[in-house]
Amino acid sequence: MSIYLIFFLVLSYLVSIKCLYYRHRRTLVKSLKRVMNVLPGREADGADITALIVTAHPDDECMFFAPTIIRLVELNASVHLLCLSEGNYHNQGAQRKQELLKSCAVLGIPASRVTVVDHKKLPDDTKAEWSVSLVSSVIVRHIRAHSVNMVLTFDGKGVSGHANHTAVHKAVSHLASTGQVPNDCCLLSLVTVGLLRKYIAFLELPLSWLLSSCLCCIIGSQGYRQAKAAMLCHRTQLLWFRYLYITFSRYMFVNTFQMIPQGPKNLKIY
Q1: Which of 19, 89, 159, 187 suits 262 as a labelling partner, its CA being 20 to 30 A distant?
Q2: pTM of the prediction?
Q3: Rg (Cα) of the chain, in Å, rounded?
């Protein structure tokens, strides 16, 4: 295969990605309308969305959810963040909380919409088993207090497999299955992909677009710079492999979500 043909194929692929991004900008609102069950004939306005991103540690918001936050803020949605620990594994909780606030400011979430939980039963620890009832009670109180109508969090694999990530998913799934979530609130889980897909950066975008998902959020070069700037706010976490993650992780460019199915409302558990 000649060098010219390889160059042409690479160039065509990059052009297709750019076209895909601009096409996605036109279809994101339609996806949100479908996810939120907006009645036919009614326009889905980003200002009608109050979204809650539920994470386990400071830096989760930019490492895993930056494309979603950036796109929702662009649509004038009201985006809130609930972080269920200070990330105090190395006794840096206070510093990491301040880094989180700076990161959220870069992503477009004001400090007034950021809540960081500091609870002795919710430590930043891969070996800790977080209580499903405790975590779910914290989340549902937040949903009701802020009239949240969209919750976005990890799926059962937690992207990285961290026990705290999967515990958050278990808690949200518990709320869904027991009918404790308001009728107008949809629950979405961030899709965990395999290792190869995870680390081919923006080259993975066409695959994410083509595979079935309830919601797909893609950012371009400007959004990537914003996500990178947010990640760089977490100075305590910038070990050498974090820079590789910033460069190669598809989660810095795209998020795909699946719906968490909800059970009967007001179900009583005996």
Answers
A1: 159
A2: 0.88
A3: 19
